[in-house]
């Protein structure tokens, strides 16, 4: 984790971006998303919520910045860097040999039958494989190919373990693998190809 923060700080990353309440703000938004996934509101509740959310969105509009200025590039101290589009994970260890993380799919990530949506599992793998590739290559990479094998059901609201690592690098090509476990049980595994971007590559 500290190696990850150091690697980012060397590139000017600032873990105070967004301020001391940013993590709790994102947690409240995640709580909203969890409820929105399962709520079946009365008309009165729906109208009430719409009014509150409209007001809130108007307030937040005043603080919207471009993608490179958001805290989600730099907040390695927060679950999933505070990025609400990712399932929340905490990094336990990250260096050139690989990334170990604890990840929890929540109600928002429901596919069906109390299990995580397969696409959400792929989202988690994509980010953590990208991190493993970047730590290995010492440079930001982009997903060229990602394959996920779903081995058993992935539960919600359970802390799961992810291990992601680079198997080898050939020039700009970083070949990566990852596993997702619930205790000893393998839920899913992935392999992918990430490409180191050329300077200035769009
Ligand atoms: C720094 C330290 C701290 C870091 C701490 C950072 C932490 C922060 C973590 C954030 C983690 C975010 C992780 C999410 C990452 C996304 O989700 S990225 C978004 C999804 N991906 C995309 O949109 C990619 C779209 N595709 C492209 O942009 C381009 O096709 C690519 C992937 C950049 C490659 O294009 P290119 O640069 O022109 O390279 P190209 O010459 O085509 O290919 C290079 C080589 O790869 C091969 N290749 C390319 N694509 C494929 C393929 N699909 N299958 C097989 N081979 C392929 C080519 O054949 C070629 O092989 P060689 O001829 O060299 O042997």
UniProtKB/TrEMBL annotation:
EC number: 3.1.2.2
Superkingdom: Bacteria
Reaction catalyzed: dodecanoyl-CoA + H2O = dodecanoate + CoA + H(+); hexadecanoyl-CoA + H2O = hexadecanoate + CoA + H(+); (9Z)-octadecenoyl-CoA + H2O = (9Z)-octadecenoate + CoA + H(+); (5Z,8Z,11Z,14Z)-eicosatetraenoyl-CoA + H2O = (5Z,8Z,11Z,14Z)-eicosatetraenoate + CoA + H(+)
Gene Ontology molecular-function annotations: hydrolase activity
Gene3D superfamilies recorded: Hotdog Thioesterase
GO CC entries: cytoplasm; membrane
One GO BP annotation of this record: fatty acid metabolic process
Thioesterase domain ranges (all copies): 114-185
SUPFAM superfamilies reported for this sequence: Thioesterase/thiol ester dehydrase-isomerase
Enzyme class (EC, first level): hydrolase
Bilayer disposition of the protein: Peripheral membrane protein
UniProt KW keywords: Apoptosis, Cell membrane, Cell projection, Cytoplasm, Fatty acid metabolism, Hydrolase, Lipid metabolism, Membrane, Transit peptide
Matches recorded under InterPro entries: HotDog_dom_sf, THEM4/THEM5_acyl-CoA_thioest, Thioestr_dom
Subcellular location: Cell projection, Ruffle membrane; Cytoplasm; Membrane
Homology family: Belongs to the THEM4/THEM5 thioesterase family.
Protein name (Swiss-Prot/TrEMBL): Acyl-coenzyme A thioesterase THEM4
Species whose genome carries this gene: Rhodococcus maanshanensis
